[in-house]
Design brief:
26% of the residues lie in helices and 26% in strands. It has 242 residues and is of the alpha/beta class. It has one domain: 4-Layer Sandwich (Purple Acid Phosphatase, chain A, domain 2), CATH 3.60.21. The structure holds fe (ii) ion.
Length: 242
Amino acid sequence: MRIVQITDLHVGREGEDTYGVDVRSNFLKILEATQEKEPHYLVISGDLCYRDGDADIYEWIKGKVEQTGIPYEIMSGNHDDPVMMANTFGRANLLKGKELYFRRYFEGRPVLFLDTTPGVVSKEQLNWLKKELAEQKGEAMIFMHHPPLEGGVPFMDQRHALQNKDEVQEVIFEHPHNVNIFTGHYHVEKLIRKKNMVVHITPSCFFQIGQESTDFQVDHYRIAFREINWNNGVMMNAVHYL
Ligand SMILES: [Fe+2]
């Protein structure tokens, strides 16, 4: 099974200046490159909007993604509105209160999608995660916008890290198998392992963030997506830059 993950699109409103980056064109280029990989699934892991959730932006993204015909999942990031997103994408049935977390089956395998919009995994969601993992027999796969640990990027770690990462880690560590976690949010490419937790941070479709400084710094403007191939117990990952 092949999954493509794209993240942190940060699409602005029509005509809005987004740091001088043509984010709409970036997204379309990424989508084109995604199609060439012929994935079975596409995951868009949050921060679809530049600053705040916007129905017109969601509508535009939905139109472009659905033209590809690839089955896809959407998730909310800290620059999104999960309720507005679920409604616009026709997935209001997945909402639990105001949160958009859910389980899907990809070729028969359970895949979990979390909602970290406020920078925290809620109590209800943590309990749900615990139950979901307890029901899984083998290696698990989770998509979440925020990484559940520090990513070694001082600006992000100090100002924008997930607030209750220790609580999330406790739940993950209870699982007797590997838990593969795919995130965005940090605008960097990283692979971090801690015990049975393997965290893959995927670069943004906007710009990448400098990994040395505690101040905000753009590292570079090359955009990328992640390709995940998971077959016969082997998980192979590649990040492709355009
Ligand atoms: Fe984010």
